Amino acid sequence: MNSFKPTLPEPPTTNSNKKWIIIAIVVIATLSVVQFVVNSFILNPLSFLQYEEGVDIDIASNGMVTYEADDGVKISSSDVDNPLALPSDWPEFIPVANDAKLTQTASAPSGPTGKEFLVTYVTQKSVADVILYYKQELQNFGWKPEYEYASVDSGTVISFTEGTKDTVVINISKEAKGTLVRISVYIIE
Questions:
Q1: CA dihedral 55, 61, 64, 69 (to 10 degrees)
Q2: Contacts of 183 (CB under 8 A, 6+ apart)
Q3: 85: exposed, middle or buried (C-beta count within 10 Å: 0-12, 13-18, 19+)?
Q4: 78-110 pLDDT, tens per residue?
């Protein structure tokens, strides 16, 4: 005789419930971390610097960013539609084109008495005109040409020295909005 035994579904186990609870906790924790990263570092990429002591960061509504530290470092960045001014202590013997639209400026102490500067700007002058301009102007102020390097990909780099320690390096390249000029100045007094 065959005996019939009905099969009943097994009651849910506590291990199955625990598994789903653990998955839910992991998902919630992951979403919290993602939200923190997006809010802190993507939507406001400079927010982590604001907690550094002795640093002041200003992000203006027009997109200009200024970083200023107690040690004398100052960096500003903007775009050609909101050009910057030269740093107040920019050496007057290093000219910039009269139609220059500054997009980056930086100044910092270098050693006990020196100073370093960086200025990036866009001009409507041609690359050749900018090169000629700096060769003439810097030599008028007593700077000696050090080297010149031209490349189709990266533009032209020209360098000048004055005395034994002071150096000016200028990178000039053609960009969509005009000629991009980067001037690095190292003054050791």
A1: -10
A2: 94, 96, 117, 118, 119, 120, 168, 169, 170
A3: exposed
A4: 887 888 889 888 888 889 999 999 999 988 887
